[in-house]
TrEMBL record:
<dbReference type="InterPro" id="IPR014284">
    <property type="entry name" value="RNA_pol_sigma-70_dom"/>
</dbReference>
<dbReference type="InterPro" id="IPR032710">
    <property type="entry name" value="NTF2-like_dom_sf"/>
</dbReference>
<dbReference type="InterPro" id="IPR052704">
    <property type="entry name" value="ECF_Sigma-70_Domain"/>
</dbReference>
<dbReference type="InterPro" id="IPR013324">
    <property type="entry name" value="RNA_pol_sigma_r3/r4-like"/>
</dbReference>
<protein>
    <submittedName>
        <fullName>ECF RNA polymerase sigma factor SigJ</fullName>
    </submittedName>
</protein>
<feature type="domain" description="RNA polymerase sigma-70 region 2">
    <location>
        <begin position="13"/>
        <end position="76"/>
    </location>
</feature>
<dbReference type="InterPro" id="IPR014303">
    <property type="entry name" value="RNA_pol_sigma-70_ECF"/>
</dbReference>
<comment type="subunit">
    <text>Interacts transiently with the RNA polymerase catalytic core formed by RpoA, RpoB, RpoC and RpoZ (2 alpha, 1 beta, 1 beta' and 1 omega subunit) to form the RNA polymerase holoenzyme that can initiate transcription.</text>
</comment>
<feature type="domain" description="RNA polymerase sigma factor 70 region 4 type 2">
    <location>
        <begin position="117"/>
        <end position="167"/>
    </location>
</feature>
<dbReference type="InterPro" id="IPR007627">
    <property type="entry name" value="RNA_pol_sigma70_r2"/>
</dbReference>
<dbReference type="Pfam" id="PF04542">
    <property type="entry name" value="Sigma70_r2"/>
</dbReference>
<dbReference type="InterPro" id="IPR013325">
    <property type="entry name" value="RNA_pol_sigma_r2"/>
</dbReference>
<dbReference type="Pfam" id="PF08281">
    <property type="entry name" value="Sigma70_r4_2"/>
</dbReference>
<dbReference type="InterPro" id="IPR036388">
    <property type="entry name" value="WH-like_DNA-bd_sf"/>
</dbReference>
<dbReference type="InterPro" id="IPR013249">
    <property type="entry name" value="RNA_pol_sigma70_r4_t2"/>
</dbReference>
Length: 302
């Protein structure tokens, strides 16, 4: 059976959609914006007769990169007046929503580069540095390919990558810590719910920090909370005010174990963690409702 032009375009889109989303999400830190960029990139590429493009993957990545940079430029002023800490939109990667959301293919997941801590470090880079760094470090592109995508020389891309890599310093994730994550997070929840402060102090580092992103839309801490005692007091205060229909579930958030909480069966907040030496080093809580719109309501089977 002969494959039509439309069918060929659809096959190209399905083949490269996970890659495009993976790049766009890391660039933007937004699930919904990344989905929009991917869709727009494909529509634009299809209008230019994608079937006759010599290297569709590089071509699509170039479109996605440029559209991400345009999006970041237009959002820069909003970021400057953002109320409180800014955190990326949580990316929920569970089988329950795999049919309803563009998810990165396992080949592009690289869990450590999806973590909230990693995405925040990427924010320190310029837009071009971020693109070069992601294409090289995460997606394993050659410098000649990167040069074609970002419109710079291969030598320049090497320099940009080296500068970006030096600017980012995140301790490598230890396999032992990865295996301990589930147990530590569950211990933390149990200690918090039961009011066992003594146990909490053994799970959370004394100099831990908590970031709460409400974006000025809902009540949230407008400044980071420092120290395990202050964090415990802050979280205990929230716990005491929870409504009766509050419920939560453990799930994979940004490639790591996280917690999605619901009120009235609607997503209320998402909490992720950064571990260091077997203890929780940082808490990231997204309560901004605009950043939770893509998360599905509570299901009994969740």
């Amino acid at each position: 059976m002969e494959i039509t032009g439309a069918e060929a375009s659809e096959q190209i889109y399905l083949s490269y959609r996970p890659l495009m989303f993976s790049l766009a999400y890391r660039m933007l830190g937004s699930v919904m914006d990344a989905e929009d960029v991917v869709q727009e990139a494909f529509l634009y590429a299809n209008e230019t007769n994608l079937n006759h493009v010599h290297n569709p993957k590089a071509y699509l990545c170039k479109i996605v990169t440029n559209r991400c940079i345009d999006s970041l430029r237009s959002a820069s002023k909003k970021r400057e007046v953002y109320v409180g800490p800014w955190l990326p939109e949580p990316l929920i990667t569970t089988s329950a929503n795999a049919d309803n959301q563009i998810l990165p293919d396992l080949a592009y997941t690289h869990k450590e580069s999806l973590s909230t801590a990693y995405l925040l470090l990427l924010q320190q880079l310029s837009w071009v540095e971020r693109a070069v760094f992601l294409l090289r470090e995460v997606l394993q592109y050659e410098y000649d390919e990167i040069a074609e995508i970002v419109g710079k020389s291969s030598t320049n891309c090497r320099q940009i990558f080296r500068r970006a890599k030096n600017a980012i310093s995140l301790p490598p994730e230890r396999a032992s810590e990865t295996k301990q994550t589930t147990a530590i997070v569950e211990q933390f929840v149990h200690a918090l719910v039961s009011g066992n402060i003594a146990q909490l102090l053994t799970i959370v580092k004394s100099d831990a920090i908590l970031y709460s992103d409400g974006g000025g839309k809902v009540n949230a801490a407008t400044n980071p909370i420092l120290g395990v005692e202050r964090i415990a007091k802050f979280l205990s205060g929230i716990l005491a005010k929870l409504p009766e229909d509050y419920r939560f579930t453990f799930t994979t958030v940004n490639g790591q174990l996280g917690i999605v909480a619901y009120v009235n069966n609607q997503p209320n907040n998402v909490m992720t963690f950064q571990l260091e030496e077997g203890q929780i080093k940082a808490f990231y809580i997204v309560v901004n409702p605009d950043k939770l719109k893509h998360i599905e309501p509570w299901h009994m089977e969740a």
